[in-house]
Amino acid sequence: MKKLVLCAATLLFGAGMLRAQDEQPVNPEMQRQELVNLELENARAIKLHNPTFFKAAYSEDFHGVTRYGETVNKQGIIHELETMNLQFDSVVSSDAQVRMFRDAAYVLSLRSEVGRADGKKFYNQFRVLRVYVNTPRGWRIVSQLETKLATDANR
Fold first, then answer.
1. Cα radius of gyration (the chain)
2. pTM of the full predicted structure?
3. Is the pLDDT confidence value at 13 over 60?
4. Which of the pair, 2 or 47, is modelled with greater confidence?
5. 69: buried, middle or exposed (CB in 10 Å: 19+, 13-18, 0-12)?
6. In the Cβ-directed half-sphere of 85, how many Cα atoms lie within 13 Å?
7. Which of 81, 82, 91, 150 fits 43 for a cystine, CB–CB 3.0-4.6 Å?
8. Shortest CA distance to 125 belongs to which of 115, 117, 113?
């Protein structure tokens, strides 16, 4: 009888340890920093006109609103990035405000752009709201809204 109780206790303890190893504790600060890093990478991809980040980080069912107020899906935003006639000197994402809700989050940030279009210098600022969903493959962007802020076009 003692052996049976000992075996049962060992099995329960072992099962508890396995479950504890599978369920890693969620570190909110680490997840927040990961979302901020995704915002920084997004700005870098825009500056370089590089669609690789967009293909990996944007979900297949993505829908958003572009800087021009147009609604787009994932393919549309990649096409816009590849064909835009803007040359960027700098694209910076800052002031990231992250709010997390279990497996979803939103990030409100400020994106500042300096560059040239048709030989003229421009300076743009946008408030960007992105909605993320945490999937087994990491955070994916499912929606975004870009709002252009009033700026001086000729600096």
1. 22
2. 0.79
3. no
4. 47
5. exposed
6. 4
7. 91
8. 113
